């Protein structure tokens, strides 16, 4: 089962969109209020390396993007949250991956 399918099955409505990036990496857009829980699940599922966090101003909304790697599964996943410009707040994932601090 793909990580996208695992997340959709486990988190259902918290998974807003699944997609594949141009470079072939699987991507998932999750609801901001579910980010910490989804990240804990990913970590517990072997996604032990948060390699990059970035932000993009999309004019109408803000995006936070997490690139996560699993050494055991040998796969990547790109996790995104879309934030309202008026309330751009999302939980930290530093308790899941210390490098997020």
**Residue share in helix:** 10-25%
- Give the CATH H-level superfamily: NADH:ubiquinone oxidoreductase Nqo5 subunit
Number of H/I helices: 2
**CATH level 1 class label:** Alpha Beta
Global mean pLDDT:
95
> Major sheet: size, sense and barrel closure?
5 strands, mixed
Number of strands: 5
Order of helices and strands: HEEHEEE
- What is the gyration radius calculated from CA atoms? 13 Å
Q: How do the strands line up in the largest sheet?
A: 1-2-5-4-3
Distance between the termini: 31 Å
CATH 2nd-level architecture? 2-Layer Sandwich
Structural class: alpha+beta
* Regions with little confidence, pLDDT below 50 for 5+ residues: none
Number of domains: 1
Could you tell me the CATH topology label: Beta Polymerase, domain 2
The best one-word shape is globular
Report on the architecture of this protein.
This protein has 101 residues and is of the alpha+beta class. The protein has one domain: 2-Layer Sandwich (Beta Polymerase, domain 2), CATH 3.30.460.80. The chain has two helices and five strands. The longest helix is centred in the middle third of the chain and has 10 residues, at 35-44. The chain is globular and about 40 Å long. The mean pLDDT is 95.
Summary tags:
101 residues; alpha+beta; 2 helices
Brief overview:
This protein is α+β, with helices and mostly antiparallel strands and 101 residues long. 19% of the residues lie in helices and 40% in strands. The chain has one domain: NADH:ubiquinone oxidoreductase Nqo5 subunit (Beta Polymerase, domain 2, 2-Layer Sandwich).
